[in-house]
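FIELD: query
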Amino acid sequence: METTEILNTVALTLGTGWASGLNIYAAVLMLGVLEVTGQVTLPETLAIVSHPLVLGSAALMYGVEFFADKIPGFDSVWDSIHTFIRIPLGALLAAGAVGDLGIAAEMAGLILGGALATGSHATKAGGRVLLNTSPEPVTNWTASVTEDAAVFGGLWAALYHPWVFIGLLAVFILLMVWLLPKIWSGIKTVFAALARLFGSKPADNAS
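FIELD: result
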């Protein structure tokens, strides 16, 4: 395999895993449409995303998520449920992006794809919990549109400008490592405040 092919494979593998953690349906939809329209030729092991049933299902669920992801409070419930969808499917897509490079490469794809999907999903879901402390919907809409744009733009870069994508992904990973502890600390503060709020009521009633 030539160096260019290896680079393209690595970028696609990392890109599918990362994008899946943000919006799995947008990732499948974009890859499937590009394959159907002949804009790209995906590895045979990933080309299943262009099947009409897969493409139709992804389009339907992307439409559902487009609205669900913009409702304050409900978006966090949606993210919680999708912990069990985005991460495993992200790992599978990344493994499929490896192509016919052998079982070891597929396993590496599963590991890397799952890790990246977990990281991007945790960053998205944790950030949404903090955004939901503000009652106005503007921040949720802005975050949702930004995430979708990042998925489409990131996958486009992975397919057409792999070096650019890998560089941007490195920046994202560094930012994620810096952000996640702060997000987690903020989430603990939010839940501690909620616990004090609801925990104080029985005591007040008893007195």
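FIELD: remark
Helices lie at 3-36, 52-68, 74-97, 103-131, 138-160, 162-206.
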